[in-house]
């Protein structure tokens, strides 16, 4: 009995202590940084590990050189490929407790924040920092909403890239150096892989990678203008051209691994690295996975634009905003200046493996893949990626994801899929 | 009057913190949730008041129940709950019955069956995602590979990737985790039957089976009811296990709790609130009769 009472007392004491601790820790976020710097900036990102963390560290290095008076406060939130950070950001913005600047995919993903009046128009900063000339005109056009720009991109990724295992292609009797002008040519190669080696012709992962594949197939079938028209209403989702693209998508799904829904992109890319799958369509962050595995191109792997999309750069970008009601607008502007600066972009992208949005970076500072991406970025037509929030607002992307998942798991037929996509467009197009 | 205060005052003062906290954080927030679900807040701008919001009564509910996607989620929830309930009840009862007879190492067995409950759904989900890999034939791994190795390749299937009944596969880890708990409940029930009753049954010449069938099992029905309620309400709220085996966007494993999450992440607060309210009602339908029943038996 006595010991039981003692135990209760201890438990109660612990509970009180933890409450007190919690109270203390929530008090820390005040202005008392104690470093003696006159300004500060809280930068909210989901760059908490891996190459993203390295990139952020490099960026902070440049920022501190450029702004010795501004204290950098790291607001990185780990987990769920950014979904944990987005959840927290959503609550903070609703509660009028914004960070000074936050990471968001450039483009339509910002729509919700713009309409809710949570991000400032930064077109003035574009003029002040001279960014209109530094970024490709196509990109600036993609970022502009009703004549205003709401974020400054820090890096560019390309979503329409096919990665392939050189050895497996050779075993299948294919020329690893070959590129495929059309999807039909590619189907022949995929058939060859299946017949000659019995391996998975095309590796695929969970829903968002399926949406990534879908957007590149739409791009391949409809062309750059037709694809862009899907988002501004000038291409009809119910048209026979879209039906044809969806039929190609359905055919491609037939070449993929059955356990796709349980995998994420590194698992699918790993299948190509290990020679268990011949092809994989994935954004160009996949190059880091090949490099980490010690693979060399073209000896071990090759890359090319998704068949039928040569000359088109399906872009996505991380970017930084200026939050409305930012507690430290001066610090936030200093951060945005570093984001847009040549030094900042070079340091960040060398570490992260993406390419600078600016067109004045020297290619020789970068890896072979990055050099090829930079060359494409400067001369190709630029279109916005769907799966990564550049082309359509979150609700629309979610609706397309749901429809795609329903279709690829066998919950509906092709006509139903197209009907779902049409409904998603009607509900979300502005 | 002062006497009444002296009588009511101190107890009221003592429970008032609880009452206030419950009032604000449970019932207050339930009310806010219910109001949100009857508005048309479908984007971020409406949520923070920059675009007009109107009161639409039950329109969100009508739309939800009318949409094929939500019906699919509800169907999944029913399948999951039925399989999960049946599985835990059968295994839990069976193990408890086996352990009720004098067995050597009873404590060891009890612990082994009970241990899975100590694992979090997220951790076991990560392991079971691998075990329930849907590849078959050459690329198989997990359970499908095991079936090949023990010569039962025809048992291979695509587990949770089956669009119609795949959700039932996710109930397997849930059953694995919770059966031990149901066993503990039943075991307590078995042990709660007074020895005199067993002796009396034996004196009357009943066989072991007759004793269980007519003396012990009838005494277990309150325990069985509690087990159904506890497991049932856990099943209706299923989220973490599904999230860690599958992904929120996967159509085959959608349940209302996942829909709520996806709605919220699309800034569709009204629909998220409506799904939350629907879930609350479903759980209440299960629990309220039980509470009423408990109340009545206590009074007797």
Automatic annotation (TrEMBL), chain A:
InterPro entries for the chain: Bact_solute-bd_prot1, SBP
Gene3D superfamilies in UniProt: Periplasmic binding protein-like II
Superkingdom, natural source: Bacteria
Keywords: Signal, Transport
Secretion signal span: 1-22
Subcellular localization(s) per the UniProt record: Cell envelope
Keyword field contains Transferase: no
GO cellular component: cell envelope
Sequence similarity: Belongs to the bacterial solute-binding protein 1 family.
Function as written in the Swiss-Prot or TrEMBL entry: Part of a binding-protein-dependent transport system for a sugar.
UniProt-recorded name of the protein: Probable sugar-binding periplasmic protein
The species this protein was found in: Cellulomonas terrae
Taxon lineage: Bacteria, Bacillati, Actinomycetota, Actinomycetes, Micrococcales
TrEMBL record, chain B:
Domain ABC transmembrane type-1: 74-292
Matches recorded under PROSITE patterns: ABC_TM1 (PS50928)
PANTHER family linked to this entry: ABC TRANSPORTER PERMEASE PROTEIN
Record bears the keyword Transport: yes
TM region(s), chain numbering: 12-30, 77-99, 111-131, 165-190, 211-234, 269-292
Subcellular location: Cell membrane
Family (UniProt): Belongs to the binding-protein-dependent transport system permease family.
SUPFAM superfamilies noted in UniProt: MetI-like
Coiled-coil regions listed: none
GO CC terms, sorted: plasma membrane
Alphabetical GO biological process terms: transmembrane transport
Taxonomic source organism: Cellulomonas terrae
Keyword Lyase: no
The name this protein goes by in its record: Sugar ABC transporter permease
Lineage, uppermost ranks: Bacteria, Bacillati, Actinomycetota, Actinomycetes, Micrococcales
Topology in the lipid bilayer: Multi-pass membrane protein
Pfam families named among the record's database cross-references: BPD_transp_1
Keywords for the protein's UniProt record, in alphabetical order: Cell membrane, Membrane, Transmembrane, Transmembrane helix, Transport
């Amino acid at each position: 009995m006595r010991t039981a009472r003692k135990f209760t007392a201890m438990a109660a004491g612990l509970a009180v202590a933890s409450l007190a601790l919690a109270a203390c820790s929530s008090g820390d976020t005040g202005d008392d940084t104690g470093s003696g710097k006159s300004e500060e900036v809280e930068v909210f990102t989901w760059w908490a590990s891996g190459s993203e963390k390295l990139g952020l560290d490099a960026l902070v290095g440049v920022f501190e050189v450029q702004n010795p008076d501004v204290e950098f406060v790291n607001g990185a939130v780990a987990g769920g490929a950014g979904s944990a950070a987005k959840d927290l950001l959503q609550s903070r913005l609703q509660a009028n407790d914004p960070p000074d600047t936050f990471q968001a995919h450039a483009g339509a993903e910002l729509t919700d924040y713009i309409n809710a009046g949570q991000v400032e128009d930064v077109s003035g900063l574009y003029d002040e920092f001279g960014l209109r000339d530094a970024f490709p005109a196509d990109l600036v056009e993609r970022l502009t909403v009703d004549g205003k720009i709401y974020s400054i991109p820090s890096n560019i990724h390309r979503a329409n890239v096919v990665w392939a295992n050189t050895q497996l292609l050779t075993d299948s009797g294919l020329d690893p150096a070959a590129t495929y002008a059309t999807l039909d040519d590619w189907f022949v190669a995929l058939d060859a892989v299946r017949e000659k080696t019995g391996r998975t012709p095309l590796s695929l992962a969970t829903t968002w990678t399926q949406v990534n594949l879908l957007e590149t197939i739409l791009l391949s079938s409809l062309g750059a203008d037709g694809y862009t028209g899907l988002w501004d209403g000038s291409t009809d989702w119910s048209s026979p051209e879209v039906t044809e693209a969806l039929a190609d998508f359905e055919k491609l799904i037939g070449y993929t691994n059955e356990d796709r829904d349980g995998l994420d992109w590194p698992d699918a890319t790993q299948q190509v690295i290990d020679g268990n799958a011949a092809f994989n369509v994935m954004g160009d962050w996949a190059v880091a996975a090949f490099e980490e595995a010690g693979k060399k191109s073209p000896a071990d792997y090759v890359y090319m634009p998704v068949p039928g999309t040569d000359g088109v750069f399906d872009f996505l970008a991380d970017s930084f905003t200026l939050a409305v009601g930012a507690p430290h607008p001066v610090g936030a502007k200093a951060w945005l200046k570093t984001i847009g600066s040549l030094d900042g972009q070079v340091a960040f992208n060398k570490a992260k493996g993406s390419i600078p949005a600016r067109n004045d970076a020297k290619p020789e500072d970068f890896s072979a893949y990055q050099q090829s991406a930079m060359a494409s970025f400067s001369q190709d037509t630029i279109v916005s990626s769907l799966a990564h929030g550049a082309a359509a607002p979150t609700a629309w992307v979610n609706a397309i994801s749901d429809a795609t998942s329903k279709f690829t798991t066998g919950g509906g037929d092709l006509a139903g899929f197209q009907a779902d996509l049409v409904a998603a467009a009607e509900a979300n197009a502005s | 009057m002062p006497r009444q205060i002296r009588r009511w005052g101190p107890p009221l003062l003592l429970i008032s913190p609880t009452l206030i906290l419950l009032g604000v954080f449970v019932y207050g927030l339930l009310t806010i949730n219910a109001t949100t679900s009857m508005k048309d807040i479908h984007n971020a701008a409406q949520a923070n008041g920059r675009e007009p919001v109107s009161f639409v009564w039950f329109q969100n509910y009508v739309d939800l129940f009318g949409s094929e996607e939500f019906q699919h989620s509800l169907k999944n929830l029913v399948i999951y709950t039925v399989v999960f309930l049946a599985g835990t009840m059968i295994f839990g009862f069976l193990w408890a019955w086996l352990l009720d007879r004098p067995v050597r190492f009873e404590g060891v067995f009890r612990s082994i069956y009970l241990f899975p409950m100590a694992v979090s759904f997220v951790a076991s989900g990560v392991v079971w995602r691998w075990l329930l890999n849907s590849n078959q034939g050459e690329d198989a791994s997990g359970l499908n590979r095991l079936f090949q190795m023990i010569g039962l390749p025809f048992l291979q299937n695509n587990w949770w990737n089956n669009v119609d009944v795949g959700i039932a596969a996710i109930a397997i880890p849930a059953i694995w985790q919770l059966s031990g708990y149901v066993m503990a409940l039943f075991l307590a029930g078995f042990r709660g039957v007074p020895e005199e009753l067993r002796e009396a049954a034996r004196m009357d010449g009943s066989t072991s089976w007759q004793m269980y069938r007519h003396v012990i099992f009838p005494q277990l029905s309150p325990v069985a009811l509690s087990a159904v309620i506890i497991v049932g309400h856990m099943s209706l709220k299923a989220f973490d296990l599904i999230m860690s085996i599958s992904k929120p966007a996967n159509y085959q494993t959608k349940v209302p709790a996942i829909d709520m999450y996806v709605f919220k992440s699309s800034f569709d607060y009204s629909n998220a609130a409506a799904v939350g309210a629907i879930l609350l009602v479903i759980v209440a339908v299960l629990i309220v009769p039980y509470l009423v029943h408990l109340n009545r038996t206590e009074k007797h």
